[in-house]
Design a protein that fits this description.
The protein is an alpha+beta fold. The protein has a single domain, classed as PAS domain (Beta-Lactamase, 2-Layer Sandwich). The protein is 31% helix and 31% strand. The radius of gyration is 15 Å and the shape is globular. The termini are far apart.
Length: 137
């Protein structure tokens, strides 16, 4: 049975409200994989204001970020935590390098988890990320 759009929207509204209060970088994507929000901590982390990333599809977003694994190889989106959570609808964690808005690569850890309005009503993904110091490998 399909759920009312209001319930799906409420889940994303509540997720956005929660994300806006956190000091940790948080990104929200809807069920289609479109970036619908990221907080101020995320803006600082990636060096790009939300207005520049809003509305991008996941593939466009990742083309800007050009994710690399620990050995410097490009990683396909479906192998990243965000892609795994979108496809499998289960939490994921990973470490890699992502290009910031200024073109510099930095090492980040991130965890992603699916958002559901109801048990089987997937509405999107919340991703949290943080910078890892280079000397802590």
């Amino acid at each position: 049975m399909a759920r009312a759009p209001e319930q799906r929207n409420l889940t994303l509204i509540l997720a956005r409200s929660f994300a806006s209060q956190l000091a940790t970088a948080v990104f929200l994507l809807d069920v289609e994989g479109t970036v619908i929000y990221y907080n101020e901590a995320a803006e600082r982390l990636i060096g790009e204001p939300f207005v520049e990333g809003a509305g991008l599809r996941m593939d466009e977003w990742m083309a800007r970020r050009r994710p690399l694994d620990e050995e410097g190889n490009e990683v396909p989106v479906e192998s990243l935590p965000l892609g795994m959570t979108m496809l499998k609808r289960e939490p994921a964690y990973g470490v890699g390098r992502f290009r910031r808005g200024d073109g510099e690569y930095q090492r980040f850890a991130n965890v992603t988890f699916p958002l559901f309005a109801h048990t089987e009503d997937f509405v999107g993904v919340m991703a949290m990320a943080w910078h890892l110091d280079e000397d802590r490998r």
